From TrEMBL:
The keyword Membrane applies. Residues 248-378 form the GGDEF domain. InterPro entries: DGC-Regulatory_Protein, GGDEF_dom, Nucleotide_cyclase, Rev_trsase/Diguanyl_cyclase. It comes from the Bacteria. This is Diguanylate cyclase. Keywords: Membrane, Nucleotidyltransferase, Transferase, Transmembrane, Transmembrane helix. GO terms for molecular function: diguanylate cyclase activity.
Length: 378
């Protein structure tokens, strides 16, 4: 999935959550990515701000009356508050802190309402120049609203309605028959742009879901569903090293099956794969849902992270061996027995690179296996 350098918080309030609803249920990480698209960048924001404030300022100068002055003040205040919220949100997102997403989302319809208010008072002022400028400003806003906020189709529809809807009211109140054409144009425009935002939203979510699935496949073992080597190193770098630097001390277990080759040779690769799947299931159940469990390749596995009942590493390793030594039913008439050799290494701040920790555990595992062979020879 596309990676954003900043992470923005999901909305917490009902209204903001409703505005952000993408149209179908989506995973949390995709929803977070959708939120990031709404914040955009400062240059895009300044383009919209310049348009609305410039038009309000020109028409307030042309018509120095309370309604137009109120419009200008409203535009400046709303845009200024949105700018502050935008800057604060980007700063907090870079720091990994909660962002004021609710306020930012709720200010967006208010901005649309100020634009619509300006169009309304301009249309009823009797000044064709004012009406033309304000209507053009509102129409120009719609394109940006749609293509900047299509991650939230409901927000797009409401902002367009608040921006262009007052144009229809103003057209009726102006007494100019020619402006009544807007009663046909604007509803059609509202419908067309809302549909466009919905379709763009569907395309965006579908792309994100495809990227997410590709990422999952790239980091998970296709046979067992566990993390693969690349997926483990990626996850462990963030979770284990962070925990170690915070003062934690987490064991890492490197597991190699004893007797797997004999099963493969006797029954074939299909039964060997069935054995690996069952081993993976037992290890996942033993380690717990929050642990990192990976197949490193062949018949080698790793367990690390928040492992259930692993405060005593030796005791956990004994339980893991006991689980693996229980018989495996691979078919109605095929039951096999295998063993396991386990090496343990501590994830500490002194050895804070995952490849070093894995290498230590791997070496410990091979030492256990060598000792078993020596004992067997003796």
């Amino acid at each position: 999935m596309t990676n954003y350098p900043e992470t923005f918080s999901l909305p917490q309030g009902r209204l903001a959550t409703w505005l952000l609803y993408p149209g179908r249920d989506t995973p949390p990480e995709i929803r977070v990515a959708l939120v990031a698209t709404l914040f955009g960048t400062l240059p895009i924001f300044f383009g919209g701000v310049f348009n609305t404030i410039a038009v309000a300022w020109v028409l307030a100068y042309r018509h120095p009356s309370p309604p137009f002055r109120f419009w200008l003040i409203s535009e400046v205040l709303v845009c200024a508050v949105r700018l502050v919220i935008l800057i604060v949100a980007h700063r907090r997102a870079r720091q990994g802190r909660p962002t004021p997403t609710d306020i930012y989302l709720l200010l967006a319809p208010l901005w649309g309402a100020t634009v619509g208010y300006g169009a309304l008072i301009s249309a009823t002022s009797g000044d064709w120049v004012a009406a033309t400028l304000s209507f053009l400003s509102a129409a120009a806003m719609v394109g940006g609203i749609c293509f900047r906020n299509f991650a939230a189709p409901r927000l797009v529809a409401i902002m367009i309605f608040l921006s262009l809807g007052p144009c229809c009211v103003g057209a009726v109140l102006s007494g100019e028959r020619v402006l009544l054409l807007t009663l046909v144009q604007i509803p059609f425009y509202l419908f067309a742009m809302s549909v466009a935002a919905r379709k763009l939203n569907v395309m965006l979510i579908s792309t994100m879901e495809a990227e997410r699935e590709n990422d999952r496949r790239a980091r998970h073992d296709g046979l067992t569903g566990l993390l693969n080597r690349a997926g483990f190193f990626h996850a462990a770098t963030h979770e284990l090293v962070g925990a170690a630097r915070a003062g934690g001390k987490t064991p890492l277990f490197y597991i190699d099956l004893d007797g797997f080759k004999a099963v493969n040779d006797a029954y074939g690769h299909e039964f060997g794969d069935r054995l690996l799947v069952q081993v993976a299931t037992r290890l996942r159940q033993l380690a717990g849902a929050n642990a990192l469990v990976a197949r490193m390749g062949g018949d080698e596995f790793v367990i690390a992270g928040e492992v259930s009942n692993a405060r005593e590493p030796d005791a956990f390793a004994s339980r893991a061996i006991g689980e693996i030594e229980r018989p495996f039913q691979l078919a109605a008439n095929v039951t096999v027995h295998v063993g396991a050799s386990i090496g343990v290494a501590a994830v500490t701040d002194d050895a804070n690179t995952i490849d070093k920790i894995v290498a230590v555990a791997d070496a410990a595992m091979y030492e256990v296996k060598r000792q078993k062979k020596s004992m067997a020879v003796a």
